[in-house]
Design brief:
Blueprint (H helix, E strand, L loop, with lengths): L8 H11 L7 H13 L3 H24 L8 H23 L4 H12 L3 H26 L1
């Protein structure tokens, strides 16, 4: 699926940004994560990570709507699922960066994976970009 971009991750990010209507907010970080994935031969894990990111953001949207929508009955189940999958996507990102250099590991840990509001906000932006990546990949499958 993403094989056509193995030689040029920057081009992949440009295509995703164009596809998203220029809504990517962590372009450099997305490219860095993609570069790491390719260098470590973790394309499969990268694809699993973009799937999980899209799922997490979908659960977040359900949670936001659920508080004002009486038709959504099982918010406790959604909360549990969100917690499990947020932990899963953080674990996937940690696994993706585990074989990278210390600078990249520290960068991702400090900016996305720490337990503080700024890192959580950065993580959400990265997840949004990963979701756009998944949507782009899905669109390529249909083409």
């Amino acid at each position: 699926m993403i094989e056509q971009f193995y030689e040029n991750p920057r081009e992949l990010v440009k295509k995703i940004d164009d596809f998203s209507g220029y809504k990517l907010s962590a372009r450099d970080d997305l490219q860095r994560l993609f570069d790491i994935s390719l260098n470590e031969n973790n394309e499969k894990l990268f694809e699993e990570t973009i799937f999980t990111a899209k799922y997490v953001l979908g659960l977040m949207r359900v949670m936001k709507k659920g508080t004002s929508n009486p038709e959504i009955e099982s918010l406790d189940h959604v909360k549990k699922d969100l917690t499990v999958n947020m932990e899963k996507v953080v674990g996937q990102i940690r696994e993706l960066i585990s074989g990278s250099n210390e600078v990249d590991k520290k960068y991702f840990e400090d900016n996305f994976l720490q337990m503080n509001p700024e890192a959580f906000q950065n993580l959400n932006k990265l997840l949004e970009d990963l979701e756009w990546t998944k949507k782009f990949m899905n669109d390529l499958k249909r083409s």
